[in-house]
Amino acid sequence: MANEKDLNKQRFDREAAASLVKELRTTFASGKTKSYEWRVAQLKGIARMVYEKENELVEVLHKDLSKPETESHVTEISMVKTACKHALKDLKKWMKPEKVNGSILTFPSSSEIVSEPLGVTLVIAPWNYPFLLAIDPVIGAIAAGNCVVLKPSEISPATSSFFMEFLKEYVDRSAIRVVEGAVDETSALLEQKWDKIFYTGNGKVGRIIMAAAAKHLTPVVLELGGKSPLVVDANINLQVAARRIVAGKWGSNNGQTCVSPDYIITTKTFAATLIDALKNTLEQFFGKDPLQSKDMSRIVNSNHFARLTRLLDEDNVSSKIIHGGERDEKRLYISPTILLDAPEDSQIMNEEIFGPLLPIVTVDKVEDSFDVINSRSKPLAAYIFTNDKRLEGEFVRTVSAGGILINDTIIHLANANLPFGGVGESGTGSYHGKFSFEAFSHKKAVLHRGFGGDAPMRYPPYTPAKQRLLKALLEGSIYGIILALIGWPRA
Question: Can you tell me which family this protein belongs to (predicted)?
Answer without folding.
Answer: Belongs to the aldehyde dehydrogenase family.
